Amino acid sequence: MPTDTIPHETLATIGLVCGLALTAIGLVAVARRYSASGFAVALIGLLGIAFAGTWSVRELAQLRAAVVTSPAPPAAPTVPEPNQAVQEALTRARDAESLAATATSERDEARRKAEDAEAALTTERTARDAAREAARQEAAADAQSRAEASAKAALARAEEEIAGLRRRIAELERPPAASDPTVPVTEVVAYMRSLIGKRLDTPFYEIAPLPGAELVEGLTGSWYVLRLKVDGVPLTFPDARFRLDGDPARMGPGIEQAQRDVLDPVALLAKDHRVFVRGSADARRVIGSDADQPSAQQLAVLTPLGDGRYGRSTAQRPIMTPLRNDDLPALRADWLRGRLTAAGMSEPIDILATTPSANPGGGVQRTAEIVLYVDW
What we know:
9 strands
């Protein structure tokens, strides 16, 4: 039988047995004086024993190494008893419930903290907005207070400057006495011409030069328009009326001041002068009330020539009944002439015929004014 098919342990055992047998035979032969051959046999037996021992030691070392390096067998699973499994499942369920309760508590606590933080943030924002609004209001109030104080100071300075300016103007514009022999007449005339030659506005009247040198035929010189004021307001008649409401004596202060400042000095200093009146009316068709009907049936007026001048001769203008809008300018001029005559003016005063305004959007035009001609 082939040796590669015999197990290693069998070969070692055969070698060991044969070695022991040969060694015993050799020793017996040596003892019976077969020393040479006995010794040889004993030596062969010892070689067999040595071979078998060597082979056994090697196999033992390989077996020990295999035992050391091989993995330990897995432990057999322990099968829990039925009651123990139930207890473990209950324990795990309780642990899960405890964890869920802890998680819910932590979630609620986190939510409460978030709500508290949001409430605190809202409160902080409200407080910040309130502080900002208070600061803005305080700054606005401070700025307004400073502006009011500055405006009051500026107004006081302006009033003081205006008062001083008025005093200075009054000193400069005080007319020299015409009867003063030390003042040349030419100086007085020059002063009056410069005074009424510019637009002069007072609480009682306003006067301004009129363009053109010959408003009435044959009267060449300087022309001025003088508008009286009533209670500091320019003379304006009620709608569709040619008389002022209330007491006509309200015209007195304006007429007196105009006479003292302008009309009387002009009458004293000018070579020639004439006083005219003219009225105006709005651009619409109106009829006067029955309570405001004129007493005169016609009025003497100077009529236009068509070239921008008036004729020297008067014409009678009939006054219609009921009152028409076209009659209001002449009637208002006649009413003003009556007030001037009542105030002491004895010189003749002619009416310049005018027509109502042709511009409906021209504003209120319900007045009467003095037209002054002066030949210096």
